[in-house]
Amino acid sequence: MTITTLSSRELNQDVSRAKKAAENGPVFITDRGKPAHVLLSIEEYRRLTRQRRSIAEALDMPGAAEIDFEPPRANIASRPADFS
C-alpha cells in the first residue's frame, strides 16, 4: 500500500492523478499543510465500513481467559458542588 499526500491545489489541478494514486492506497489531501481529507478507492472504503464489530468482539482475543488480571478497585469519592 502506498500513501500519497497532495495539497488541495494539487488535487484541483490534477484530479486524475489523485484517482490513480487512490488505487494503490489512501491519498491524504492537505489544507495549509495539515491533513484535511482522505481519498480512498470504493473497494477500500467498502472494506473499511464492512467490518463492524462490537467493543466486546474487538477486545476478545484467543487465550484471554487464561490471563490472570485483577486490577485494584478504584476508590472515587464524591463531594458536594460549591456554587458560591
Automatic annotation (TrEMBL):
InterPro entries referenced in this protein's UniProt entry, alphabetically: Antitoxin_Phd/YefM, YefM-like_sf
Pfam families: PhdYeFM_antitox
Source domain of life: Bacteria
Signal peptide: none
Polar residues composition-biased segments: 1-15
Region annotated Disordered, chain positions: 1-23
Record family assignment: Belongs to the phD/YefM antitoxin family.
Function text: Antitoxin component of a type II toxin-antitoxin (TA) system.
Full protein name: Antitoxin
